[in-house]
Amino acid sequence: MHLNVRLPAVQPETLQPPRSCPYPDRRHRNQRCRGTRFMLHQVNCHKPLRDTRHTQVRAQRYLCLSCRRTFRVYPSGVSSAQQSATLKALSVLLYILGLSYQGVSDLLEALNQPVCKSTVYNNVQAAGAQAIQLRTTWRKQPSMKVAVLGIDFTHVKRLGQDTIVAVASSILSGAALDFEIIDDESAPTITRWIRELADSVGAEVLVTDDADALKTVANDLGLDQQICRAHVNRNVHDLIASLGTKALEQPDRVPRGLRVRVEQFLADLQSLEAIITGLPHDGQQQLDTLAERYQPAPPPQPAHKASMWYRMRLLALDWSEHWSRLVRFQAWRGTHGETLDGTNNVTEQIIGQRVKERYRTMRGYKRDASILNVSSLLGWVGMQPAGYNLGELV
């Protein structure tokens, strides 16, 4: 993964006076103290620190004049934790770059900055949770607009069980919009997830693979759909190869009323593949012609397989009905003249780089939260501009 980020620095002499009291209200525990006036109570409070440069910094203690409790104010890059923001961010960065939790611990120990494996794990998980909050806030900005929403799914193991991770992206900007764990890939489950997401970003077009459930989702949500050409081309190529092999090696008997020979069937297979991959302007009419030609092919009897003739009929009819979902990209234009390439490559790249690349070096996850935290962390950092300060995450 190529990254250009900055680590937060500890600035021992930079102490900002407090603006709010960190304590809860004495009478309302679910609310913070409303105190805004503070008095310097103690100037020099020595704070031991685990950092790449400093072993100790100076903190100050203030008295809240409202609730009469005292609290510490730390220099920039320091908190009540033993580690500095620099050390936390460094451990997170090393994990992002591919080291295991134990590997990060070993490297930091070699640099005379011993951090145990569980602490590295906690740092990464906390950074991932913060990345989720930052992404949610960013996505809810009034100016946030994602006209074209990409959706895809991948699978990882959690405690040995298959887990489905749903991924959403902005096709035009390449940003990762959401990572979610879902129970299944049925239309009702997907609809519940996509509805809120699409409404919040003002999506107009849904880019997906050719699963029937996703077509139902697009219809239910009133969204235009672009089916990924790469998925379709692969699936159609495999199906046509299967039908061609069947026709050459063991063709089914020609049904009554169907006046098509095997030679014509093979030629029609080539024509069908050319239509789907080439997307000519009269492609739907050509598919209608093919579907009409194989209309006499009967459906299979119960407990019997469909004949190659009937499968050809269904294939031509199916893509004729969904032709607009294949060619949506040809006419679509964004408000600033943006165009689409008809694929869902953006979402697939996010899955490969933000989910699978890290997952390949692991034996699996133990918690759903870990799946989301790690994927969200990689997704958030990966979409930031050069010079991004990791201090925002720690």
Report on the architecture of this protein.
By secondary structure, this protein is α/β, with parallel strands linked by helices. It folds into four domains: 5-73, no CATH class; 85-140 and 384-392; 148-228 and 343-363, Nucleotidyltransferase, domain 5, CATH 3.30.420.10; 232-327. It is built from twelve helices and ten strands. The longest helix is centred in the N-terminal third of the chain and has 23 residues, at 117-139. The radius of gyration is 29 Å and the shape is elongated.
CATH superfamily of the largest domain: Ribonuclease H-like superfamily/Ribonuclease H
Helix content: 40-55%
Count of strand segments: 10
Largest sheet: 5 strands, mixed
Let me know the average pLDDT. 92
Outline type: elongated
* Unreliable runs: none
Oligomer: single chain
Q: What's the Cα radius of gyration?
A: 29 Å
> What spatial order of strands do you see in the largest sheet?
7-6-5-8-9
Query: What is the straight-line distance between the termini?
Result: 20 Å
User: Order of helices and strands, N to C?
Assistant: EEEEHHHEEEHEHEHHHHHHHE
Write down the domain tally.
4
Q: Specify the CATH class of the largest domain.
A: Alpha Beta
Here the CATH topology of the largest domain equals Nucleotidyltransferase, domain 5
Number of helices: 12
CATH-defined architecture of the largest domain = 2-Layer Sandwich
